[in-house]
């Protein structure tokens, strides 16, 4: 067993020297022509799985904010309706008032005209009646005063009407705006609620991803290049599993378990390992026939960055390791499955 651990540590060390200094992906790798669609789907499902709880928490917080906003919008719409009702009522009343003042002015103008005619008639009367003429002229003066007063009142009524029209128009627009805002607030809530109702669970997404893992391996292998890998805390893995691997290392550390290990290795290194690990031959003997199980070159998931030989605190995992217990309980949440014959070997298929 000791030999085995030492050999695996060698493997881990070799892989780590290859590790690039590329920054750890914070999200699934951007679309690349060389990465098969199924692998992108896999990465996206794992991303959704590992962010499902955070996504749900964010949606719930958004919903709470939107509900507060809706209450505010609804109350603003109620207020705007009251202001508009009052502005329209005032406009009706001011319009009626303006019409009455206009009628009164017309009647004052008719009275003035009648008074002027009376002066003319009286002036033609013979014998001349000076007292009657003077009376008729005083009547003209009085009718002129009344006409002028009512003309002033009409100007005032017209000004009030202009103001009332403007206020009514402003209130109508404000009501329309407030109603639209309330409708928008309600539809934003409905949209968030739909997203909450249809959101997948972490376990559901992980199960969907796991169902694709063999196809991911099959389609990734023929198009894989080293450029498809990235380093996560010194472990080089395929970009499509980098997010999940990083989350696994972070979450394990939060539980007091340190995880590291050797991920990607080249085919040339795999050939070397077949020799170092005492396989009967490089190309045909089964992995189990080697002193340390070592896959035939071209078949190892390490060669495409989809497997990691896990170490904890610099030691290769055994079934007795605390890290092995942690991984047995949690690794599937991150898409990693153990190869039963090798406690340290974890990959997306368990192969
Ligand atoms: Zn391995």
Automatic annotation (TrEMBL):
Keywords noted in UniProt: Carboxypeptidase, Hydrolase, Protease, Signal
Domain D-alanyl-D-alanine carboxypeptidase-like core, residue spans: 236-337
SUPFAM superfamilies: Hedgehog/DD-peptidase
InterPro entries linked to this entry: DD-CPase-like, VanY-like_core_dom, Zn_M74/Hedgehog-like
Region (Disordered): 64-84, 117-150
Superkingdom of origin: Bacteria
Pfam family, any one: VanY
Biased composition (Low complexity): 131-146
GO biological process, one term: proteolysis
Signal peptide: 1-33
GO MF term set: carboxypeptidase activity
Protein name: D-alanyl-D-alanine carboxypeptidase
